[in-house]
Amino acid sequence: MNQPVPGHIYIITGPSGVGKGTLCKMLLAVEPNLTLSISATSRAMRAGETDGVSYHFKTRDAFEAMIAHDQAQPDAERHHLLEWAEYNGNYYGTPRSVVQEALAAGSSVLLEIETQGALQVKRKFPSAHLIFVAPPSLEALAYRLRTRGTEAEAEIASRLEISRHEMTLQDQFDYVLVNERLETCLDAIREIMAGTASGRTLR
Ligand code: 5GP
What we know:
Layout: E1 9-13, H1 20-30, E2 34-36, E3 40-41, E4 56-57, H2 60-72, E5 81-87, E6 90-95, H3 96-104, E7 108-112, H4 115-124, E8 129-134, H5 138-148, H6 153-167, E9 175-178, H7 182-193
Parallel strand pairs: 1-7, 1-8, 2-7, 3-4, 8-9
Antiparallel strand pairs: 3-6, 5-6
Helix pairs in contact: 1-7, 5-6
């Protein structure tokens, strides 16, 4: 398999529970020149998560202060966040400096973010590769969310509602991969990274 082309932004997006996080871990294990962007969030830390590793955990006030800073700052080079979105009542955002430093050093950067944020990055970096990972069906997604056991039923229900909407946005992404089997999906992403994928892949 060829190495990923350096200096690129790869965005793994798609509904919650589809396997984005697992795919990113698998990618980082096999692609040495890839830097994972660790997001900031105002959501509460889950059991098993570590601050600075899973996310940079912030209070809602601290997150809103970053948003206010960026909105008042005309120079995008001084923004805290490259993109941000409110997802199911919590803020999530990509720190700008990490992405820009990695790109400047010739690394490629991997972002695991929801759809609104992915589209914001594409507006700023039209060459970013947007990869939408879809579940085989919404029923399969509901099953995965329930069996991973990280959210309560009310949270699962609202995530599924958001997923229904996110599924309608698929056409706006460069690639759509159906995650039937993780290894097949991983191989497809590596082909995209190596520049050998033949256009928009639907599997
Ligand atoms: P979770 O609460 O399950 O960790 O994440 C909820 C959603 O937020 C997921 O779809 C995840 O990919 C997305 N997300 C994580 N980090 C970011 C980020 O920095 N920006 C945006 N826009 N979404 C993010």
